[in-house]
Design goal:
The protein has 227 residues and is mostly helical. It contains eleven helices and three strands; from the N terminus they run αβααββαααααααα. The chain has a three-stranded antiparallel sheet. This is GntR family transcriptional regulator.
Length: 227
Amino acid sequence: MPDSPTAAPLPGASRSAQIHHILENEILAGTLPPGARLDEMELAERFDVSRTPVREALRHLASAGLIQIRTRQPALVVALSAARLIEMFQVMAELEGLCARLAARRINAAQLAQLSQYQEQLVALAGTEQVEAFYEINRRFHELIYEASQNHFLAEQTRTLRNRIGVYRKMVTQKPTRRADTLTEHAAVLRALATGDEEGAGNAMRGHVNLLGEKLLDFIALFPKAG
């Protein structure tokens, strides 16, 4: 299973690649939140390097759409508007729905058992204050469905988009009612996967991920000034 967004950089990577990896993970995990400043000099001091590898790392982050490089000013972590995020969630829902649809045909018994274990862990965590743990197990639940789709390109594209909006998904997860809804929605996905119901699995997953009804209102409330 792929590493979590907070995984350490691989040994042997260039210094620039290591800095890029660390900063990317901090952005995706929300440690560097939308709007955070990334000053070349401060980063060079932090990583004890010259500004050259820092500048290269920032260029890679900018090309991935994670930061905005500005002339004679520190780079900024990109802050997405509510409208843009809603569009991204819509695409995410279709990608995850397709993953679930394929997984209904291709999932094996071991994967199905593991999904059930993750669901049990989520049930135990839902009523607690362990939001980070809930979010991490939820991420693993979805990752396993990507894997069970047995379509590596689809899994890669889905994971990339999920990482881009991960911080915002975590914000919604802070709400206890959203965690409770997640359990019900996961149960519907699990039932469809267990019975090989391709259409049911796809529909259940799309409904789970997409921002509809009260979920949309809750999400928009997080961005009162967004267009």
